[in-house]
Automatic annotation (TrEMBL):
Keywords: DNA-binding. The keyword DNA-binding applies. InterPro entries: Homeodomain-like_sf (IPR009057), HTH-type_TetR-like_transc_reg (IPR050109), HTH_TetR (IPR001647), Tet_transcr_reg_TetR-rel_C_sf (IPR036271), TetR_C_Proteobacteria (IPR039536). It comes from the Bacteria. It holds the Pfam family TetR_N. The lineage of its organism: Bacteria, Bacillati, Actinomycetota, Actinomycetes, Pseudonocardiales. Residues 19-79 form the HTH tetR-type domain. It comes from Actinomycetospora aurantiaca. Residues 42-61 bind DNA. This is TetR/AcrR family transcriptional regulator.
Length: 217
């Protein structure tokens, strides 16, 4: 699977040149994989849903395994965007009184993103197929939840270096913050796919509690 991930990366430019077909295939494959899983979803069904030929699917991705990897790894772009936003926002903070509002906003967005139905659906799919694609599951974790957690830790560390927060162990603080924000909610949501996501008021409560407990309120 490591080799498969490398091939997905190396052909990114080729796939971008066929953007309309690629987007249609990925969209159709995502919906079908989420609804039926990897094993029960055939390339002919994906091609029909994308309104392309089966050969086009093979030309774009090679086989169903590579297409599945592209779908899973494509989702990590959201985490990368959040990480870039978080870094830029915290770097712009210059006064202690501005730290709280900045952290509260970013924690709110982080929680809402993790608990969004679409993100949860992909997480369930990755977990379900982890036995078949262990390297892909590990790479998804590295690029999405793992990368975001590291970005938060790095941001807190830089704030501490500038004397704007009192944090002695950024990695531990980031991990504690993540669990307090959405650990219990995520655990419940993974086993109750029919449950609605938390509303704005609930997220605000989670954020206030988490920041207060870790000493960042």
């Amino acid at each position: 699977m490591d080799e498969l991930i490398v091939r997905i990366e190396s052909t990114a430019g080729e796939e971008r040149r066929a953007e309309p077909s690629r987007v249609a295939i990925v969209r159709a494959a995502t919906e079908l994989f989420l609804a039926h899983g990897f094993q029960a979803t055939g390339t002919d069904r994906i091609a029909a849903a994308a309104a392309v030929s089966k050969q086009t699917v093979y030309n774009q991705f090679g086989d169903k395994r590579r297409l599945f990897a592209a779908v899973v790894l494509g989702v990590t772009a959201t985490a990368e965007a959040y990480g870039a936003e978080l870094t830029a926002t915290l770097e712009a903070v210059e006064r202690r009184e501005d730290v709280g509002p900045a952290l509260r906003l970013l924690a709110h967005r982080w929680t809402a993103a993790v608990l969004a139905p679409g993100v949860l659906a992909v997480r369930r799919l990755v977990v379900t197929e982890a036995g078949r694609f262990p390297d892909l599951a590990a790479e998804y974790h590295r690029r999405a939840p793992g990368a975001t957690l590291q970005t938060v830790a790095t941001g807190l560390g830089r704030l501490a270096q500038r004397g704007l927060v009192d944090v002695t162990d950024p990695e531990r603080t980031a991990a504690d913050l993540a669990f307090l924000l959405f650990g219990a909610e995520l655990d419940h949501a993974m086993f109750h796919p029919e449950a609605p996501p938390p509303d704005e008021r609930r997220i605000a409560e989670l954020v206030d509690h988490a920041l207060r407990v870790v000493g960042l309120a």
